[in-house]
Amino acid sequence: MRQNITLTIVSLLTLLLMTVHFTHDVMHGAEPPRSIMNASVILLVWLAVTVLLMGRTVGYVLLLIGSLLAAGMPVIHTMNATTAKWEFSFYFTLLALGVTGGFGALLSAIGLWKQFRARRATARSSS
């Protein structure tokens, strides 16, 4: 139970950082303003998965995918490094997003592994 609470908090923090990061991208012209609708849908799904599907297999899988994408943001942005000088808050958000995304992916993988082991133990005891 404690791990689910930790994963929920980390996922919500990652969601907040992803929102700030996307805002930076729009402000600096890396994303067009019309892509706000797409981002809103993605962030809404992320929030719904975090709040409604926590502890279920599909919730762990979707949070694992989202966390891996968040953890990959620093890598994605350094692959296309430009000479543009962005402010401190952008790089801080990017670093924090990579850390919380990686930690969320780790917690999601542990949750999936525990569910897999519990199902396997239940299947063995019933047969």
What does this protein look like?
By secondary structure, this protein is mainly alpha-helical. The chain has one domain (2-126). Helix content is 82%, strand content 0%. The chain has helices at residues 2-27, 36-52, 57-71, 73-79, 88-126. Helix 1 (2-27) runs antiparallel to helix 2 (36-52) and helix 3 packs antiparallel against helix 5. The mean pLDDT is 87.
Element layout with pairings:
Elements: H1 2-27, H2 36-52, H3 57-71, H4 73-79, H5 88-126
Helix pairs in contact: 1-2, 1-5, 2-3, 3-5
Helical content class? over 70%
Rounded to the nearest angstrom, the radius of gyration is: 17 Å
Spell the H/E element sequence. HHHHH
Q: In the residues, how many domains can be counted?
A: 1
Strand content is under 5%
Mean pLDDT: 87
**Class from secondary-structure proportions:** mainly alpha
Distance separating the two termini: 28 Å
The gross shape turns out to be elongated
Low-confidence stretches: none
Total strands: the figure is: 0
The largest β sheet comes out as:
none
* Annotation field: number of helices: 5
